[in-house]
Amino acid sequence: MTALEPADGPDLLVAEPLVRTEIKIGYARVSTGGQKLERQIDALTAAGCRKIFADKKSGKNALRPELKACHAFLDPGDTLVVPSLDRYGRSLQDLINMVAELRERGIGFTSLHENLDTTTPGGRLVFHVFAALAEFIRELIVIGTNEGLAAARARGRVGGRPTVATEEVIRAARDLLPDPGRSITSIAKLLGVSPGTLYNHIPDLRELRAGAGPRQLEAPAK
User: Fold this and answer.
1) Which pLDDT band holds residue 142 (cuts at 50, 70, 90)?
2) Host domain of residue 99
3) What pLDDT, on a 0 to 100 scale, did the predictor assign at position 120?
4) Would you say residue 165 lies in a domain?
């Protein structure tokens, strides 16, 4: 894939951030109020985190106030440390987007459980492969959806956009909605439904879209 060609992007072997503050900031999350954060906090403390932010929110919920505060607190040269990748990203694409934004801000990223560290060449290579895999998965979703629609037309179900979205279409839409490169209109057109159909059949559509844009990682002016 062209995404893996060095000429198309930054050199994976270059150390980043170029200037490191050696400050580590932690982020922990549990899905419900009944779960305990102590184990994650102990691991982050042992890793040398000076400050730890923690949310008690489901990973499917885009409204994670402590994560937003954590991103705003980070300065260039700092490193964000998480107990595991599933505590940070809501999906593979969400994870790729947020780590890419951290990198653009000159901030490192470390996941303790997976032993991934984007300040090292090996860690950056892993995320580069993740990004290529995420794009491959999106392409498979689109191909599968188009084949399903073609099969339906071949069975005589034609005549414009369906009035009721199928389970397959809704599942494909949910996978595509977090992608910041696609608008709701373009997703609806791709799947052969109207934007209104997506709004009607996906109650948390706005939450899925909330995690699509990079602005959530922008630090406020100091």
Assistant:
1) low
2) 2-120
3) 85
4) yes
Helix or strand run (H / E) with residue 81: strand 79-82
Residues 137 and 94 in one domain: no
C-alpha distances (whole Å) from 179 to each of 115, 172, 188 are 26, 12, 13
Rg (CA), the chain: 20
pTM score of the predicted model: 0.58
Are 111 and 13 contained in the same domain? yes
* Residue 25 buriedness (CB in 10 A; 0-12 / 13-18 / 19+): buried
| pLDDT score of 12 more than 70 | no
State the total domains in the chain: 2
Task: Cite the active site residues.
Answer: 31
User: What separation in angstroms does the CA of 169 have from each of 26, 130, 139?
Assistant: 38, 25, 15
Shared-domain flag, residues 6 and 114:
yes
Q: Cα–Cα–Cα angle for 81, 84, 86, nearest 5°?
A: 120
Residues 13 and 28 reside in one and the same domain: yes
Distance between CA atoms of 215 and 2, rounded to whole angstroms? 27
Question: Distance between CA atoms of 112 and 43, rounded to whole angstroms?
Answer: 8
Q: Establish if 217 belongs to a structural domain.
A: no
Side-chain-facing half-sphere of 19: CA atoms under 13 Å: 2
